[in-house]
Amino acid sequence: MTTVPHGPLPARTPGSAGPPAPVGREELLARLETVLHARGRALLTGPAGVGKTEVALAAAARAEARGETVLWLAALPADRAIPGAAAAALVASVAATVAPPGPRGEPGTAGAGEDAPAGPDGALGPGIPGTLPAGVFTSGVFDDLPGPQRTAVAMLCREAPIQQGGWDPIALRLGIARILRALTSRGPVLLVVDGAEFLDPDSTDLLRFALHLAPPSLRVIAVETPEPYGDTHRAHGTEPGTPGRPHAGHSAHLWVPSEADLLLVPPLHADEIAELLIHHRLPSRMAGRIHRASGGNPRLALAVGRSLADARTPVHHAEALTLSGRARDLARQLLGAAPPPVRATLLLAALALRPSATLVRRAGRPEAEAELAAAERAGLVSLAEDGSLVFTAGLLPSTLVHDACWAERSAGHAALAEVVDDPVESVRHRALATDRPDEELAAEVAAAAEAARRRGNTALAAELAMLAAESTPGRDGARRIARLVDAAEEAARAARADLAMRATTDLLARDASPTDRVRARLAVLDTAGQGLTDLDDMYVHAMEDSEGATALRAAVQLRLAVKYVLADGDPERSRTAAMESAALAASVGDPRTAAQALTVQARMERALGSPDAEPVLARARDLELAERPLGIRNAAQILTIRHALFDDRLTDARDELNALLPLVQRRGSVEDAIELFRTLAEIESRIGACPAALAHAGQSLALTLEAGLSPGPAWYALALAETAGGSLGRAASYARRSVQASEEEGDRVFLSRSRYALGRVQLVNGDVAAALETLRRVQADERAQSTVDPSMLRWHEELAEALLAHDAVDDALALLAEVRPVAERLGRTTVLLGCDRAQALCLAAEGRTDEAAELLTRTAGRFAEAGLPLEQGRALMALARVERKRRRRSAAQSALHGAATVFERAGAVPWLALATEAPAGELPGAAPGGDEAPTALASLTEAELRLARLVGQGASNQEAAAKLFLSVKTVEARLTRIYQKLDVRSRAQLATALRP
User: Fold this and answer.
1) Which residues contact 824 (CB under 8 A, 6 or more apart)?
2) How many CA atoms lie within 13 A of 396 on its CB side?
3) DSSP of 869-913
4) What is the C-alpha separation between 856 and 895, in angstroms, rounded?
5) Model pTM?
6) Residue 118, Cβ neighbours under 10 Å: how many?
7) Left, alpha or beta for 915 (phi > 0: left; psi -120 to 50: alpha)?
8) Which residue has the higher pLDDT, 958 or 373?
9) Are strands 41-45 and 218-224 parallel, antiparallel or unpaired?
10) Radius of gyration, CA atoms only, the chain
11) Of the spans 163-177, 642-656, 911-925, 932-946, which averages the highest pLDDT?
């Protein structure tokens, strides 16, 4: 029994509402607070490892932050056999909580000692888990107990010998109740009982009675992991008050729980698992696959994540997850509590393709329904009304199969083959029930794979194609190799990276022809997603094997063109490879490959600022019309839409994508759907359809995580959507995740994009120093990649504004002077509008506020004409800043009102908040009447004005430097310029100059 949690509560900032909630638990924590406020009791329940204790810890920390007394009891399995253990720990905790401070080792110190980790603010009692304070009665806090109650409590705490008949149960009950009432008289108390299922029977009865009499100011959280297989551990319980006397019929509940106070702690969503991994500094690029393996169980997810982090070489998307003993052991712990009959039933379910209670019963488990119901209570499976089931975590069925011997697996598949009602599934089970290759069986499995393909079940087709290859006798080498090639290509169509790698590895170990080796390697490359960095050997060998095979060389060059831009950030080399691929494909009459290669070339031509981009793209579109592409991803059609996005022909782009949506949803691949939803989200974020942008970005992420692909691109789209219409905090979080995932994958393209999204949010949030650093990295990345066209990633205007806010007006003007001629040459009209907004702010910084206001007014109008409401609103907000500088209160308010109207119509929630948060009083030096001529304040730059306000409010140079992320010397130099411009000589005079 311990009376504190494992380690102190999280530190808090004085005056705060407490530490943040655990990842993904903010809503649950709010519900817990509501239940405690309304009912005073809450029972947190859920499977092991789901994070119940973390939620209780957060609630306790928040209660402690509010000044409440917190008592924490953590019961252990061994406590069940120790009568009164929990009750004694509670008494000790109360004594330590209220004991006055004293010298080390003296009564009142709880015997913690200098080296013991003390509980936070003394709220949780003894600092050493597993120990009780010496002499709880020496604290004097129980002096008011009547004699019999005091004696009973002393016996409970072993401070008095236990009499022959045991303690007086009535006196002890009343004593515990009186102690809790006395404690609550000092203020509100929160009691947390962690591991309530391990409480000994005596303590349960004592606490139940005490809580029944406790005042409302005592609130209780019980944390319990259900025991789904029967309470066998309590068979050796004891009667209350009589150590060693057998006790039957005991319930662990401290009160009779109702639906109102029972809170189930659910598993985390895939996106929350990604956040959890990042929080623990673990790789997040495999978040989707880790979520599937863990079922959202945080403990399992972290174990799998650490397995991947500890792997000797990075695990690629096309490889099976590397699971350490820790991850497997956690799964075994969850499964190990199941009785042998339940485990046998679960093994059959793990072997089935579409498991159900009926199927398992027919396969030889007559008690399947009851056994699966017990497994469901344990959180191992989820049962539907029709009896179908799914395992809550992918690691569970894989561990069951992994730990079963061959005979058990074979018998299970054989039994299932006899009872499944689908011939395709029957063939699958027959193939898995034998370890002997058989050509007749292999042919049946290959036919079943073809049937699954016709049904549109690409995942099953890929699995069966692999089984067909592995069932082919080794003596028929040519046929086995052919089937391995089919399996790799089928896996590529199903986005099954693991099966593609498995088939290719098998094939490369055999005497396959160069053509077959290339085809298999191409399948692996096609399932790699963004993670192309670690596959260099694949490309090298594919090039070697394609020597003399023109069609295959064209296909390899096409993949190289993609790698050169994504992994290497080299558009010049990518363009060259794409041109060679297109020429080779055309020479052998392969219009499909030629169209794909021309599409990549067109993308590179656009990035490099070449006028050939549109003619090359038109050639690709013509070829696609003659030879329909297999999908939209990397197709000329989708690139045409993205060019429309770059050019801000947004309505056309959205209409074309919406026309594609039904087709992709019916017949497209997962990657096609991801590409479509992500592009839709980007378009809608820009056009001002903010709710739709959030919905489509969310769909893109959900599909990405489900497919086990890198979430970097989807997180980038969500960052844009959240910036437009969600939360700037969430936008920054998604952008940071995208940066991390792109770095892990070596994806240079999306690394730049995600940094741009992050820098933009930082700038809007006023974190100028961070925005400047981030956007300068974008500048370096884009220049390293030789990107010329400024419409593809509009970082120039954002960096110029960040430079300006950092008082680097000359650098901002130089950047704008660099990008303007390129935008004019390429006809990027809306890029020039963005430059105009930044240019106007530079004019204002130079004191030319009349020109700045005129330019911003014109720019806002042109943004409106271009159908870019969010950009229009930003220009109006910039105009309001300039009008404030001109001391024109009514004009500034009018501009802000116009911006708020635009943002409200677009559903741009964060921008609306920014527009409505700026009060009129923020206008420094504004006269009550309004439109006065500019004063000396107008000569200050934005950066100088921010510093002047801070200093005028009493900040020291050091405090201002910390707040603005500047050096003290920079603050001193800038303050000198402010004094000169305003003709003041002291901080007091500066404060006066800033007043209206």
Assistant:
1) 832
2) 29
3) HHHHHHHHHHHHHHHHHTTBHHHHHHHHHHHHHHHHHHT-HHHHH
4) 10
5) 0.73
6) 19
7) alpha
8) 373
9) parallel
10) 34
11) 642-656
